[in-house]
Amino acid sequence: MGQGHVFFQDIPQRQQAAPENATYLHNTLILEMCNNWPWVRWMMDRHKHDELKKVDPMEKDWLKFIKDNNIDVEKFGKNGDLFVETYYIKTT
């Protein structure tokens, strides 16, 4: 009964994913961000004005992606679809 947590023990974090899953995880992140585009814009506005105090793990991934790729979310305005077109990795 105390071993219930073992089932989830070996699930990798995004950064630890096997190379063959990297594109899938990248695209999932892009689609998550697009689906929550108004919130992403709000979060980045708060960050820009040093008003962002706390983020959840998903928002942390978004913030890391935006910062690592030097993305200006305002460039995309309200158009999350344009963000997807720019950053989604197409596979064959």
What does this structure look like?
- Helix content is 53%, strand content 0%.
- It is built from 4 helices and no strands.
- The protein has a domain at 39-92.
- The longest helix is centred in the first third of the chain and has 17 residues, at 19-35.
- The protein has helices at 19-35, 37-48, 57-68, 80-87.
- It is mostly helical and 92 residues long.
- The model is unreliable at 1-9 (pLDDT under 50).
- α1 (19-35) runs antiparallel to α4 (80-87).
Written as H for each helix and E for each strand, in order along the chain, the element string is HHHH
How much of the residues is beta strand, in percent? Answer: under 5%
Radius of gyration: 15 Å
| Class per helix and strand makeup | mainly alpha
Number of helices: 4
Low-confidence stretches: 1-9
Largest sheet: none
Rounded mean pLDDT score: 84
Distance between the termini: 45 Å
Helical residues, percent: 40-55%
Shape: globular
SS elements, strand count: 0
How would you sum up this structure in a few lines?
The protein has 92 residues and is mainly α. The protein is 53% helix and 0% strand. Helix 1 (19-35) packs antiparallel against helix 4.
